[in-house]
Amino acid sequence: MIASTQPAAVSGKKDVLSTPDTAAIYLHIPFCEQRCSYCDFYTVAKREQAIPDYVDALLTEIDLQQASLFWQQQKYSTIFFGGGTPSLLSVAQVSRIVEALRSAFFISEAAEVTMEANPGTVSRDQLAGYRQAGVNRLSLGVQSFHEDELRQVDRIHSVSDIYKTVDATRAVGFANLSIDLIFALPGQRPSRWRENLHQAVQLAPEHISAYNLTIEDGTPLYRLLTSGKIRPLSEGRARAVYNFSIDFLAAHGYDQYEVSNYAKAGFHSHHNYKYWDGSCYLGLGASAHSFDGQRRFANVGNYVHYMKKLAEGRLPQDFEEWLTPEQKRFEMIFLGLRRSAGLNLAAYRAAFQADFYDEYEVQMEKMLHGEQPLLRLEDGHLRLTRDGLLLCDAVCAEFLA
Amino acid sequence: MPLKSKIRNFCIIAHIDHGKSTLADRLLEATHTLKQNEMKAQVLDAMDLERERGITIKAHAITMKYHAADGQDYVLNLIDTPGHVDFAYEVSRSLAACEGALLIVDASQGVEAQTISNLYQAIDHNLTIIPVVNKIDLPGAEVDKVKQQIIDLIGCEDSEILLASAKAGKGIEEILTAIIERVPAPQGEDDAPLRALIFDSMYDPYRGAVAYIRIVDGEINPGMKIKFFTTGREFEVDEVGTLRLQKQPADALRVGEVGYCIASVKDVQDTKVGDTITAAVKPATKPLPGYREVKPMVFAGMFPTNNEQYEDLRAALDKLRLNDASLVFEPESSIALGFGFRVGFLGLLHMEIIQERLEREYELDLLSTMPNVEYQVLKTSKEVVVVDNPAELPSRGEIEYIEEPYIRGQIIVPNEYIGNVMKLAQERRGIYKNTSYIDPTRADLTYELPLSEIIFDFYDKLKSTTRGYASFDYEFIDFRRSNLVKLDILINGDRVDALSHIVHSEKAYTWGRKICEKLKELIPRQMFEVAIQAAIGSKIISRESVRAMRKNVTAKCYGGDITRKRKLLEKQKEGKKRMKQLGRVEIPQEAFLAVLKVE
């Protein structure tokens, strides 16, 4: 019996998916028309001619993974096309992939099927086609409602593209729309970010992901940073912007359910949750990561190597790690704390036959009390306070042995 | 068995880097003591640490056989001397075991403070001095100038000064000839009761303590019952012999000979440098002069970062003490740092060496507190207490006065830097005593200084203020009354005992401020604000605060990010491993030495 995959209400702090029993599928489409200045995902620009072969490789990979008893036995409740720019795939290509997945694996009829798309790169017909192919949730890489900010991060779309694309998704019947925003751009004034948030809620998407810009090593922004051409927003400013975002979005009906994710009631991303609650996920495509409950592994990053391996009929894995008991504990803790639902202490006890409070007494003493507690205990869950959320990484690191 | 008249015992006096070890190696080669393939560069510096630092920490000795130009065979015993002021007493005992000394002076550097103080000691011991100007073939060599310095210093004739380049092997035969011609053969009574001077000792894990000795009177042989004068303890001799590259057992050691003695002595606490070995039956009535209990001058707390290593630290210190009679320690507990030891050292170099050996050879992760000297405190109750740990200083109300150790320091410096040196000495509460001149360009300044003012960074400061030209040597004089106070450091309101230290009251405010500033620099931002205060008694004299982190959260965490993020957090945590948790605050280890880094 497949667990209900109807979007469950994320009412306040209820841990809706505390007993993960379904798995997720992620597909990585590394192609982009242009690389964004902050992006450190595995992507390649201007190689769209390789897409048909890449899709063939994906289908081969699905075929090979189907032979795995483990993945064969899972029941899947979410599929996610990420990238890159998955909307560079044609409707027919998406259809083939979804069909292949459905015939290879046990996927719930009501599964959440998300596709990332860039404003301005998808036509209304294309969107209608994706929906026909089974995609029922769209995640739009909006990032900003200011032209200069879009240029700053090398996005290829314009502000008007955003409105056009959102209108189109609604017109073709998408009832579950998410938009991605990015904040704390170098030099970004608070008023401009407030305008972004304001525009975003005006569009009334069901879900908003708002990411603090991380300047990753090796990105164009990183080079600007190291050459002194840009300066990151100060920690104090970034803190204020983040605090404001949480409050603003809450006031407009978007509950924060994770560090960077907000949703209207019932519309949190099921797929996101899969990464955080210990569920298994199968990653397909170049650089995609998988997790089977014991082992995390990843495909080779380079898409040419990826396709070559599959053409030889071999799985293209080039990374794997078996989680130690300590690593499992720590992942459960930090992935739990990043969510508003927090860490379910009963689930911790069940997983490790140990009482959380006994094991982490020192940390609890340090962070649960005092003038400015960073943690709180509520109905069997350990949660970050707002102060704790702002220092999430430091708080989590405390729980390492 | 060599005739007394064919023995020559000598040492080498030289400043660091003036070529002592290289010269010693050349002598070993020239006398065929070592075959070429046995030569490691600088054989005498046996410990890795010694070779790395280019100094001799422990004294060693080696016996050479030399077929001289006069057709006779001689036995030459080279007794090496430690090259650092921390080990001055060991130097004096090595000198006492010799009749002659090679005075090695670098042709481009000239005479330096340490050379002079060792030279004066050698003259005090009536040693025949053979002056050698070394490195004569270096581009900067000023042979005539250095010769003149030597003539002024020891009043010798120009013709007595030998010229050499140890590196190029020049002048080696001349030096050997001079040793035979000029150094007197040993004196001593063959038939008198045994008196042997211990000038060094080492611990052999299989055989126990090995005493390095010079026979002054009588003889020592295996099977003989011997007695150590200071401890009165008796042992039976297992083995005696001479020191070649390896120990070479002999049937006996007689007057004038230098060698070793093994007698099932458990550790070096019984074979103290400077002590006299005599016969248990028919002992000598008097020991050889000059024995002194070596006292530590500098103290510091040493704590394992992981308190579970306390036992390991104790075991390691016990082992080091087997080979180092000057090392003293007792258990100490600190609120901040847990269980550890308060360890006494001869000086700062000795401390560094011990710490490095503990970390390297025993794989201990140590945290040491700021070193301090020993204070004598007269309490209002008229009781005198010795304080080697600032945390244990009685409260101000209980103190009548405090005395601190003073040293006499000798600084040799080119004239143009005299002003800088005087300024530095004054900052360090130095009392000017005297100036004399080594030559028209170099002065020899004498100051009396509190030891506490020179144990930190005095030497480094001296070097930098004189562009490396100054040389420095010192000896302890006495304890003197000083206006001293205990400066406490409070972190988030809690006194950190390991950061307390004793300072002169006039310096307390400046120091308090600077230490707070330094700690602010060293303590990384944390999840909570950290208040740093300096206090004398209950009076806060300075404060700083480390602001809390404002935001520390990575935005994305999906799929493969989880592994990456877990590793990042593990790295974040790894960085904290060398931190000490005090309440809610994490203090990096360097913070405990913050005071050393204050400008």
Report on this model:
The complex is a heterodimer of chains A (401) and B (599). Chain A is α/β, with parallel strands linked by helices and 401 residues long. Helices cover 40% and strands 22% of the residues of chain A. Chain A has 17 helices and 17 strands. Chain A has a 9-stranded mixed sheet with strand order 9-10-8-7-6-5-4-1-11, sandwiched between helices. In chain A, strand 16 (375-378) and strand 17 form a beta hairpin. In chain A, helix 1 packs parallel to helix 3 and helix 7 (190-202) packs parallel to helix 9. The two termini of chain A are 39 Å apart. The model of chain A is unreliable at 1-19 (pLDDT under 50). With 599 residues, chain B is an alpha+beta fold. The chains are: A alpha/beta (401), B alpha+beta (599).
Give the structure's gist in a few sentences.
By secondary structure, chain A is an alpha/beta fold.
